[in-house]
Specification:
Shape: elongated
Number of helices: 0
Largest sheet: 3 strands, antiparallel
Helix content: under 10%
Number of domains: 1
CATH topology: Nuclear Transport Factor 2, Chain: A
CATH class: Alpha Beta
CATH architecture: Roll
Radius of gyration: 15 Å
Number of strands: 3
Strand content: over 45%
Length: 48
């Protein structure tokens, strides 16, 4: 699969505010000629 896959695009947004840090990222892949968008997001909150 390594020889038949490649990353076409990567977008990453980081947001920091108060006691939170959040991110949203999308990786656009092409695997065996088919395009896939993989999206991931999460939020971290500082605990007191």
């Amino acid at each position: 699969m390594r020889d038949n896959a490649r990353t076409l695009e990567f977008r990453h947004t980081l947001t920091i505010g108060g006691d939170t840090l959040s991110y949203h990222e999308t990786t656009v892949l092409e695997i065996y000629g088919t395009r896939f968008d993989h999206t991931d997001q999460n939020e971290l909150v500082r605990r007191q």
